[in-house]
């Protein structure tokens, strides 16, 4: 229905290199999306994949893989922070690897009705899981006080003009509710004139992280993963902004006694990949192995 709905998975070859999937091993794809990673892994090894995504729109893509690999692939609509329940439900005690490709997929970003994109006009929503989350961007923008708004923009978007933007929003909404992504973008543009980034990049990032509790989800799951990963099991993460990268880096450092960090510096996509898929330019991959 929408153009550009295809998601191009980032650094797939690098993922395969570090995971080195093998027959009979079990891997968890925490962020299934359109299944780019799961598909590639299954093409390379007769292994088992437990895939997770909190967005029911991912089901359509999971059904295709399930059909092709009925014995090797299971899909769960859930938050990845529920990994313990998911593994128990699937009768799995130990795993050989865990992958995160964080953020949102093109299914979500390029569907205007989801409200994730500052380039498409749509309702202010931004929930990854429409069924179970009540808090929308519209509610935050129209109901939170100036102090709270400014805090969200600053802490989750590192937006330097957080206070001025919050003030503009409060002034505007005295006249009328702010209902669409473009209405919000227009307000932000009155304060922000970035040259390198779209002026609304940071505010949209902040709202998305806050609504979906993204940093806590990640931290909880990384901690839980240590209970399930076998010796030499891998944790592979692909982050797209410094806040999530910081959670991963800190987790790896805090657990130095149990983990060997295989990427001293994060791995970034090659020039050719960035040319073909500009969205990949901010990706940072980190890998650790259980000692
Ligand atoms: C960048 S996309 C992954 C794309 C995927 N690697 C592919 O090749 O299509 C991230 C996906 O993770 C999901 N996601 C993000 N946070 C999640 C969470 N806490 N629990 C479960 N799924 C999550 C999103 O709904 C989205 O579909």
Q: Which residues form runs of ≥5 with pLDDT under 50?
A: none
Helix count from the secondary structure assignment? 13
So what's the overall shape? globular
CATH-level-2 architecture of the largest domain: 3-Layer(aba) Sandwich
Helix content: 40-55%
CATH homologous superfamily label of the largest domain = Vaccinia Virus protein VP39
Helix-and-strand structural type: alpha/beta
Number of DSSP strand runs: 7
CATH class category name of the largest domain: Alpha Beta
Report the sheet with the most strands, covering strand number, pairing sense and barrel closure. 7 strands, mixed
Report on this model:
- 42% of the residues lie in helices and 15% in strands.
- The protein is an alpha/beta fold.
- The chain folds into two domains: 12-107 and 214-290, Vaccinia Virus protein VP39 (Rossmann fold), CATH 3.40.50.150; 134-211, Putative methyltransferase TM0872, insert domain (DNA polymerase, domain 1, Orthogonal Bundle), CATH 1.10.150.170.
- Strands 3-2-1-4-5-7-6 form a seven-stranded mixed β-sheet.
- The chain is globular, with a radius of gyration of 20 Å.
- It binds S-adenosylmethionine.
- S-adenosylmethionine binds at residues 7, 9, 31, 33-37, 52-55, 58, 79-80, 101, 103-105, 128, 217.
